[in-house]
Design goal:
alpha/beta, Rossmann fold, 9 helices, 7 strands
């Protein structure tokens, strides 16, 4: 049994396996990093996993300090080792073992005043009610001019789109020299933990409406590839 978001039974399989499982994974994370101001000084990474997004963010924002949350001790340890090897931790990267659902509910104290908040492949494990709470908490934590970008799968709006998205993933896996069945054989069975559950997908439009309800003055979708999207909002 694994936590939602850990995906693979062996953490060491994550970085390669996720790139086989999700089309254009690196391009998706690059889109998040490119949409941040290079002058960003303080950035929150929610559900940092093995640290892939944190790495890309720090390359795009070389003077930033990243605060990274994840409730999985094994993922956080993996990320910490990776960032330390790259020369970022603990100087520019701080990992905190915590459930960002607690932060959304004001049960976890982290100093506000972030220039940006980012997340990848984590928020889709929350119910829609908790997504809205989290978006509101993110909005509250951002400085004027701050931004939030989330890279996540989205719910297909029709059965036809669902079939198309599945076909794209199968073709992508084949291009990587594997099949979805082979990749999924390395995954673990997740169990609910804290505020997170197995996939709780919402449509892209539903996400954008939640961001507006949470108080983001404007929203945008800088990247989308079939069932994967980067979306977020701006604070004036």
């Amino acid at each position: 049994m694994i936590f939602p978001g850990e995906v693979f039974a062996n953490t060491a399989d994550f970085d390669q396996g996720i790139r086989q499982l999700l089309p254009n994974y690196d391009e998706m994370l690059d889109a998040v990093a490119r949409c941040l101001s290079p002058q960003s000084q303080r950035i929150l990474d929610l559900g940092c996993g093995t640290g892939g997004l944190s790495m890309k963010v720090l390359k795009s924002c070389p003077t930033a300090q990243v605060v990274a949350l994840d409730y999985s001790p094994r993922m956080l340890e993996f990320a910490s080792d990776k960032l330390e090897t790259a020369g970022y931790a603990p100087k520019q990267w701080t990992g905190i073992q915590a459930d960002f659902g607690d932060w959304a509910n004001h049960q976890l104290e982290i100093k506000d005043g972030f220039d940006a908040c980012v997340s990848s492949l984590a928020i889709h494990h929350l119910t829609d009610e908790m997504k809205l709470k989290l978006f509101s908490r993110i909005r509250e934590s951002l400085n004027p001019g701050g931004v939030f970008w989330n890279a996540d799968p989205v719910l297909p709006e029709s059965p036809a789109l669902s079939e198309a998205y599945q076909s794209v993933r199968e073709e992508w896996a084949a291009q990587q020299g594997a099949s979805l069945a082979e990749i999924r054989a390395k995954t673990g069975k997740s169990t609910p933990y804290g505020y997170s559950n197995p996939d709780q997908l919402a449509t892209l439009d539903a996400h954008l409406q939640m961001l507006k309800t949470a108080g983001f003055e404007s929203v945008a979708v800088p990247w989308k590839y079939y069932g994967l999207a980067v979306f977020g909002g701006f604070v004036k």
